[in-house]
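Consider the following assembly input.
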Amino acid sequence: DAGVTQSPTHLIKTRGQQVTLRCSPKSGHDTVSWYQQALGQGPQFIFQYYEEEERQRGNFPDRFSGHQFPNYSSELNVNALLLGDSALYLCASSLGRSSPLHFGNGTRLTVT
Amino acid sequence: AQSVTQLGSHVSVSEGALVLLRCNYSSSVPPYLFWYVQYPNQGLQLLLKYTSAATLVKGINGFEAEFKKSETSFHQTKPSAHMSDAAEYFCAVSGGGSGGSNYKLTFGKGTLLTVNP
């Protein structure tokens, strides 16, 4: 049973570019949440998708957007990258909004 | 709004010694509280969860945590540390309510646990 898978594992982008990160939830899960973990910090909530809609959002600018597909997989898009966007981006899936979160291993984004 | 403070960014213990990882929270609603562990280059794994049932919660790998409302704390302990426990530990609080227990988790900055042989 595959857990949460994220791609790519590492990514290097230049300031001003756009990036798309992908997440496949654990089998049987229908809810996907995205978190940003800067170096030496705890994860920060970006947003959560359920039934293909953004249900909750953290304090992140509109440059951060997402999508959930009918198969429950999800994408995180970041436009106009800044140096401060360099971080580990974690995807977590769950069954609904009350079951425990299962995290993927993350995508390490470096913005130069 | 909720917040989490983890006391001690780095805790070092000897193998076989007691592990104590401290967490204080702030929440305007009855909280859901969590401890997660993160090994190098991996995502987070849930250790244990408090959801307003028993105040003493037992988790995986021998960890347990006690919810103390009067102290707004959710400290985690393990009686005897193993080398394999070396990792970073995060305490988290959820806004809960109608959003569900995994609603907008707010994490602390983490405590790095080192276990010395």
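Chain A touches chain B at residues 4, 31, 33, 35, 40-45, 48, 56, 58, 90, 92, 94, 96-106 (CB under 8 Å). Ask yourself how this observation constrains the way the partners meet.
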